[in-house]
Amino acid sequence: MKNILLIPDSFKGTMSSEQICSIMDRAIKQHYPDAQVTSIPVADGGEGSVDAFLQALGGERRSLTVQGPYAFPMESFYGVIKKTTAVVEMAACAGLPLVGDELHPDLTTTYGVGELILDAAKTGCTTIIVGLGGSATNDGGCGAAAACGVVFRDKDGKAFVPTGGTLGKVESIDTSSLDPALKNVTITTMCDIDNPYYGPTGAAHIFGPQKGATPEMVKILDANMQKLAKVIERDCKIDVQAIAGSGAAGGMGGGMAAFFGSQLQMGIETVLETVNFDKLLTKADLVLTGEGKIDGQSLRGKVVIGVARRAKKVNVPVVAIVGDIGDDVEGAYNEGVSAIFSINRLAIDFKAAKPRAPHDMEKTMDNLMRFIKRMGL
């Protein structure tokens, strides 16, 4: 066992991807001290995505004063990897933790996210990865677009920066004024959900309540997004409602597609492409991945399955170390997963298992390495 790739997702609320990689690496080295271990912490687009990319690939973290969720100045950041690729996580200036108890998705803005994107473009980045997740906003990405030069006008022709509560006032959109610095920049948006822009499963109805929207406000936000979608279709020539994931992060998914020409892509696919995973696989003897729980939903193409599909093409075995295993995971084996192991050694519920997770991960990894070593691999 000479070359092992580690690419686990975080166990949400329990262990970060970086922590899991560290535990796995330590257990491997105890049994295979000479093994070449490559750790690739997975960034899902939410908080911590910039640091995960920087740990995996190196680079620099750039600080910048931008508008926060309520348009007040705040210190934010983005990462630069491979010299010309920027990683922006919207949670860094439009995230839910930033508003504390002041939950008003009708007032919050993504303007600061646009400022981060524009700064990256103006300082030489030709590829920008935007991570969606953990937002406090429901402005359809209009704030970010306005920060980059897109003009939104009301019925009187007056330009303004829309928020969730004022999206319905948008009567025209002019994208021709998008800052020239973004003209030759490729923007990829990490998006792991497929909710539409509006409707019963759209941004406002599904995610609005966790951001503080009352039932009445949800109706208003959704109606505003429906109206905005019509203006976008007329002026931007794109039907955001038809784009899977357009409802992500308060409609930021749709906004990135409509105003920036961005492609929405599953987070794991973005990670795999950015780290040149296929090239790393050519030398790998084993891939270790994992997530908090693997079940039928995982088969949509999240971390474990995304990794397994690529490894299967070159016949590299994939072992998933997970917190819990659902009953409907048989399809994972057809996708390229060789084996699945749960770290829940005592078969206890999550509340009791959570504080034990790092210890149980280490013991499970130790058992796996002992087995592999005994098999002479």
UniProtKB/TrEMBL annotation:
<dbReference type="InterPro" id="IPR018193">
    <property type="entry name" value="Glyc_kinase_flavodox-like_fold"/>
</dbReference>
<keyword id="KW-0808">Transferase</keyword>
<dbReference type="Pfam" id="PF02595">
    <property type="entry name" value="Gly_kinase"/>
</dbReference>
<dbReference type="GO" id="GO:0008887">
    <property type="term" value="F:glycerate kinase activity"/>
</dbReference>
<dbReference type="GO" id="GO:0031388">
    <property type="term" value="P:organic acid phosphorylation"/>
</dbReference>
<comment type="similarity">
    <text>Belongs to the glycerate kinase type-1 family.</text>
</comment>
<dbReference type="InterPro" id="IPR018197">
    <property type="entry name" value="Glycerate_kinase_RE-like"/>
</dbReference>
<keyword id="KW-0418">Kinase</keyword>
<dbReference type="InterPro" id="IPR004381">
    <property type="entry name" value="Glycerate_kinase"/>
</dbReference>
<dbReference type="InterPro" id="IPR036129">
    <property type="entry name" value="Glycerate_kinase_sf"/>
</dbReference>
<protein>
    <submittedName>
        <fullName>Glycerate kinase</fullName>
        <ecNumber>2.7.1.31</ecNumber>
    </submittedName>
</protein>
